[in-house]
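Example record

The entry below shows one chain as it appears in the dataset: sequence first, then structure tokens.
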Amino acid sequence: MAKDIQGLGLGLASRFAGSRWAEKYGLRKPAERIAYLSTRAGFKFFGEMMQKREKKQDSTRGERLPERKQQPLFDLSLSEEQQMIRDSVRSYAEEIVRALAHDADENLQLPETYLQDAMALGLNLFSVPESMGGAAQSYSPTTSAIIAEELAWGDFTLAYAALAPVGVANALVRWGTQQQQQRWLPLWLAEQPVTAAIALQEPHPLFAPDKLACSAKSNKQGYVLNGVKALVPFAGKADLYLVAALLNGKPQLFIVPGDSRGLNFTRSPAMGLRAAATGTLTLDKVQVSVDALLGGEDSDFDYRAFVDLGQLHWCALAIGTCQAALDYLIPYCNEREAFGEPISHRQSVAFMIANIAIELESMRLLTWRAAALAEQGQPFHREAYLAHVLCADKAMEIGTNAVQLLGGHGFTKEHPGERWYRDLRILGCVNSGLHL
């Protein structure tokens, strides 16, 4: 009942924020802020209530969120909660994120208070189980994909920076031991934003996620890690890394504190993701404890599923950015005139926009389908692979066409087309770094 009251209150606040009366009297932004903060405070409150419940738990295996029941039909309709989350994140992306994107890309760094402000959305709380003080009731990669999509509508890179720590939390909840969760997940519940990242990508040619050059060897103190990781965000200032390495010929993940001896970071701005301050992370005889192996020795960790969930997260980011491009291009082409009429009256332009909409829907359908299967505990590798192949191909095509449709404006920084183009090409060369 308490949750129903909270949901009702949040719904009223959201509806008030979108009303004409709030717009007329300049109360829209304060109302939205109240909605965000009430969500965060409410989730914390109910999390504390849930912690008081006595619950029997395995001494080593960590908290596991329940999977949703299998459904005979593939249902794309969103629940009331998912729709509310979608509307709130879209509003935040429209009002806050989009305005920050250009300067963040130019300055090669995140806005000073961006991660702190993003916490008001409660993204960190959605990853942590209620029993540990968070807001997650069940395992829902579909909801995570919706959040990523809507946040990327504001900007691809800023969405990635906000969701990279969430991906680490998702992995800890999905695979971590009880001890690992109790030690690290409180960082996601603190007042200060946590910076954490998954380090999987490597700089050598023809890199494949199951053929890692980074290695781990066991010793009396735990494990020693050696290797190089590429496209790691946060300019070497992350609190925590999840590092993929080969242990006895098998890919595993290791929890590496950001201040570990032997970690070195070199900034190397890339074509896209520039605001995330990506670079190369070198591990030179980094010693970690026995507890650093994600899930422990007798783990239920599934490396293939981990990579697939990361790919789906990138797909969701691409879908959000492609949707932003479509929403930007339609009014532009209707208003831009050439030879005495809007350029949208030309069939070549109209067909190109129609194709963007068609491909966008296919990208969303495949991604949500794969996420829904993962959510129900069913095999989803085939669907995740198809979704990533399609999104990697069509995201680059849509980014290219966006620049083309903007004409000379597409080549300048006056319009966001060139930034979309640079960011969307990351899907063709990245293998993970996120986790739904």
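Notes for this example: Residues 1-6, 40-57 have pLDDT under 50 and may be disordered. The CA atoms of residues 157 and 321 lie 10 Å apart.
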